[in-house]
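User: Small ask, check this?
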Amino acid sequence: MDLLPFLLALLHVHKALCAEISWDSTVKLTKQLSLECAHLPTQILTQIEWLKRNGQKEERIAIFNPILGLEITAPYTNRVSIKNSSEASNIITLNFNNASDMDAGLYTCRLNMFPDGSAEKIIQVAKTDKFESIALLNETIPELVTESGQNITLNYQFQMKGPVKTVIWEKIQPHQIDILTSCDLLEGSPYTSKYQNKVWATCRQGSRVSILFIPNVTVSESAIYCCLVEATTGEKESYMVRLIVYGPKQGGNIQMACLKSPLECRIREPTTPEVRSPTDKPRTTHRMIFM
């Protein structure tokens, strides 16, 4: 199934080309709704605040301070909770109990961290059946299998002949789509979100290739990664790769977190390590070049 029209619809969240993105993530509305917000593992969280946008105003849902504790605002009392993710301690989730249609809309996660100051993430919660299209992604998507702790480099060489205007990298999961990076290649200027992702991508004026770098991957990075490209003529193309990250070995078995149902997850044993000379430098970067 061709998902390009659905994925490229996210290009319209720009108020001006690569100047401002209305949200960083789109999450499917479900009864057990969970919104994620993360800080870098090297940062110390001093406060986190969750808000919902209501027109031009924002209403506070909850605020947490490690010293002062947690305060949940009515009418969200007994409806939401804040927890650390089981996947990583630097991921904080806002969990809804029995969410309904009235919980659709825009949410802001505002972080205060030491020593880097503040950052925020804007999340759109949408009631849409378009997420069901993600379940129909077939096995033709190339897979990159790696272990946690490695550095991953994804490269995509543009197929279109004319000048490229916009390049966006997305992380796609069955319940959520995250905009990772956005670049205006005509100006050579990247869009920088107020939300601090640990990934980065190249953005050079006139470039014919886009490179996404993900350092020190964890099992939570397992997902489909999509590069969306739009030319000055309006021509569009995309490329996808499925990243599968294995966790540490325990008792000879492999622990792996990857895309769950409805997307198929195929367990793979790692291949035999390459035999290399003791004088060779260790390789920590996996590189895929899509021609």
User: Anything to note?
Assistant: The longest strand covers residues 236-250. The domain at 138-290 is CATH 2.60.40.10 (Immunoglobulin-like). The chain has two domains: 30-126, 138-290.
